[in-house]
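Thread: sanity check for a docking pose with fe (ii) ion

Original post by kr_44:
Hi all, I'm comparing my docking run against an independent structure prediction. Below are the sequence and the ligand SMILES. Could someone generate the full complex and paste the structure tokens? I mainly care about where the ligand ends up relative to the chain.
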Amino acid sequence: MTITDKKKVQHSLKPSAHPYLNGAWTPNFTEYTATEMTVIGEIPHDIDGVYLRNTENPVHEAIGHYHPFDGDGMLHAMSFKDGKAEYRNRFIRTKGFNAEQEAGRALWTGIANDPTLSERPGWGAQGHVKDSSSTDVVVHAGKVLSTFWQCGEGYQLDPHTLAPLGTVGWAPAEGISAHPKVDERSGEMLFFNYSKQPPYQHYGVVDRNNQLVHYTPVPLPGPRLPHDMAFSENYSILVDLPLYWDPELLEQGRHHARYYADQPSRFGILPRYGTADDVQWFEASATYVLHWMNAYEEGDEIVLDGYFQDNPDPEPLPGLPKTVGKMMANLDIHSFQSKLHRWRFNLKTGEVQEQRLDERALEFGTFNQQYAGRKSRYLYSVWGEPNWFLFSGIVKHDLETGESFSLPFGEQRFGSEAPFAPRVNAKDEDDGYLVSFITDMKEDRSECVLIDAKDIEAGPVCRIILPHRICSGTHATWADGASLRKEKNS
Ligand SMILES: [Fe+2]
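Reply from moderator J.T.:
Ran it for you. Here is the predicted complex with fe (ii) ion included:
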């Protein structure tokens, strides 16, 4: 392995027994650039692009209780070209990160604490936390965009060097939620945000040149906690789900999410460039959904796949202090029981149909993004380690035959969201690789794996050993190399 750069960031985190500051969630503070890494198998020549993953690495001792979603964002990137790979990891130099580096300590408290503990005005729908840009990552208009689930400013980075390129110029005052959606065919990016102030939600479109070209309120009945949106070829789908901050406690300045099982799930569907007047609302059975899969149009219907939670407000995990047990349960897909589910919305009749696609607890879906907004045949999900926010394996669903295929990562091996990377000159929808970082606790190291999407049960075709064991995290994406080069030259 050749390490061409190695830098340690100043930190003040003390050792603790916190479950999300140890084991596979032990934070990283060192930034590496590495080439010529040890490879088990062979790096294929027909993969070209960058795999990016966002992770949470708290640099300073928390003010109050630490929640893993409070941690400072760090991107890990593996670039592939001509059978070679290059690895980098960099903290996202957010305004909050820089201010805390200067202070040498935390200045903002996290989501689970009294807002008055923050020393400076914060960001996000809660208003008092640091925008750590640590939740999601996409690539749009040739740049990496990291986002924060509570709504933040959105940070851009160079996709190859991870050099910081500042916040997005077009970010509205209400911010950008995690899960902006890139339509690879049109080059547009669709996004939303949510807040405690009326109209409580906005939706917008950014064009392929990174200009905000559409921004409109999509009013909600009150403060809500949407996490993701979906789109079809012509429509965008936003939600009003019955899990939100208890309004009475919110009046006292407390952010306590409560599930209202007697209220419906509401889906707002509007044309891509529609406004509040164009939104058609549909009601379906009560649930909470963290992540959607794909959506597409079929006749008069919009078909939407996602992970329906059977138990959106799980009991705390036993044997732990109640607040810790509740945090652990809220991070455990076996507790909230997220199941692959299909909704069909008839735009003519207003009718909704629902169908369960798989009874196993799954989440963090991916699919070939060239099929985003159109009917796709293959979906990929991960399953979790019981009691933990850790991914233990991948399931591939073939929606045409109803078959599914599984690949466990192995004992004490935890993966990441595994986006689909199309093979160069791919012929079919599943002609490509699933890419993931694995943190292997037995070997005390991490690796990047490539899995042939046509035969996931065969296991990785290639494993690249990283220069360090990396902290687990949240979302990941794949960016096509040829498209990035085209953007650079345009
Ligand atoms: Fe998410």
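The chain has five helices and 34 strands. Hope that helps with the comparison, let us know if your pose agrees.
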